[in-house]
Specification:
Layout: H1 3-9, H2 13-20, H3 24-59, H4 64-122, H5 127-152
Membrane topology: Peripheral membrane protein
Pfam families: Snf7
Organism: Urocolius indicus
Length: about 160
């Protein structure tokens, strides 16, 4: 492989790590950092817009050229601010989607663990043995009921005559 293709395709252990991708926690941390940075830039642009607007008012009709330049800068800053708003919206959406995906992955992993545990619990159970056991229990309950019925009937001393 040539040096150029190694450079573009990645030819080392660092490249194999990047193919795996970052962990969800790393990606979430980076997205939050980016959100913070963009939030700071928003505040900066908002103060710049207010300054340019104040400069335009200050120059007013006295220096129209300076006032127009201040309004043009203000317009550029507003455009940058709206772009940042859109970018922030996209990043927030991506962060929420990543958080949901991570949550779903954890839930699925835990459900898999539970399924394995249930499989282990049911490993020693045989359906035929369970059916036999349930029949035995039913028979014993029937015997117990017959005994109970026999005991609870009044004794027929003297009511019946044996001829």
């Amino acid at each position: 492989m040539s040096k150029i293709s190694k450079f573009f395709k990645g030819g080392g252990s660092a490249a194999s790590k990047s193919r795996r991708g970052p962990s969800p926690q790393e990606a979430l941390a980076r997205l939050r950092e980016t959100e913070e940075m963009l939030g700071k830039k928003q505040l900066y642009l908002e103060t710049r817009i207010e300054r340019e607007l104040a400069a335009a008012r200050q120059h007013g009709t006295k220096n129209k050229r300076a006032a127009l330049q201040a309004l043009k800068r203000k317009k550029r800053y507003e455009k940058q601010l709206s772009q940042i708003d859109g970018t922030l919206s996209t990043i927030e959406f991506q962060r929420e989607a990543l958080e949901n995906s991570h949550t779903n992955t954890e839930v699925l992993k835990n459900m898999g663990y539970a399924a394995q545990a249930m499989k282990k619990v049911h490993e020693n159970m045989d359906l035929n043995k369970i059916d036999d056991l349930m029949q035995d229990i039913t028979e014993q309950q029937d015997v117990a009921q017959e005994i109970s019925d026999a005991i609870s009937n009044r004794a027929a001393f003297g009511d019946e005559f044996d001829e």
